[in-house]
Automatic annotation (TrEMBL):
Domain HTH luxR-type: 150-215
Span of domain Response regulatory: 9-125
UniProt-listed SUPFAM superfamilies: C-terminal effector domain of the bipartite response regulators, CheY-like
Protein name as annotated: Response regulator transcription factor
Length: 219
């Protein structure tokens, strides 16, 4: 946490150079913020953050070599003092909750106003947590519903298989599941095959019926 008379030190990580450089210039013009570096992918973001120890990393999600969620997870271990504000195009619940689970303390959608971004950065630098208004409501609703008891449902499945089955029951395609969980399409296909075998169902439709009867896929 920076002292009151010291600027908030920020690292900007985004693979789109126009957006990355534009945001760096924009933030650098704000009194009380110092942009100490930029990164074009998740690997560079982690290495730069560990080296520079900024107060906050503004992190895109979809980046080459290492996505922003995995980069955030690594920073939580390798540089836990660094706060992460995710700034991305995606409002998908899977992406939001993956970022939160990875340790992000802020989540904004690209297109947010400058003052909202600055406020998120300074709040996270001060130890707080910030999410855009719409995202905050969805997160509150998610946790207000109470945690499910996944191990009580289909105990023969692994935690990952139950997660994938729940998304299947919610009508997600394999491609959408892969994107939401940051898995390769092949990994999702293999897990789906394992689910079919363990549940002794013939196809996707039968698996979805079984899952919904058990209360999965409601979100």
């Amino acid at each position: 946490m920076p002292d009151d008379d010291e600027p908030v030190r920020v690292l900007v990580a985004d693979d789109h150079p126009v957006f990355r450089d534009g945001l760096a210039v924009l933030l650098g013009s704000v009194p009380g913020i110092e942009v100490v570096g930029t990164a074009a992918d998740g690997v560079d973001a982690v290495e730069a953050a560990v080296r520079l120890l900024p107060d906050v990393v503004v992190m895109d999600v979809q980046m080459p070599r290492l996505n922003g969620v995995d980069a955030t997870r690594r920073l939580a271990t390798e540089a836990p003092s660094v706060g992460v504000v995710v700034l991305t195009m995606s409002e998908d619940d899977g992406t939001v909750f993956a970022a939160v689970r990875a340790g992000a303390r802020g989540y904004l959608v690209k297109g947010a106003e400058q003052d909202e971004i600055v406020r998120a950065i300074t709040t996270v630098a001060g130890g707080g947590v910030v999410f855009g208004a719409a995202l905050a409501l969805r997160i509150a609703d998610f946790f207000a519903a109470g945690p499910p008891a996944p191990s009580a449902v289909f105990p023969q499945l692994t935690a990952r298989e139950r997660e994938i089955l729940s998304l299947l029951a919610a009508g997600r395609s394999n491609a959408a599941i892969a994107a939401a969980l940051y898995l390769s399409p092949k990994t999702v296909r293999n897990n789906v095959s394992n689910i079919f075998a363990k549940l002794q169902v013939a196809d996707r439709a039968e698996a979805i019926v079984r899952a919904r009867e058990a209360g999965l896929g409601g979100r």
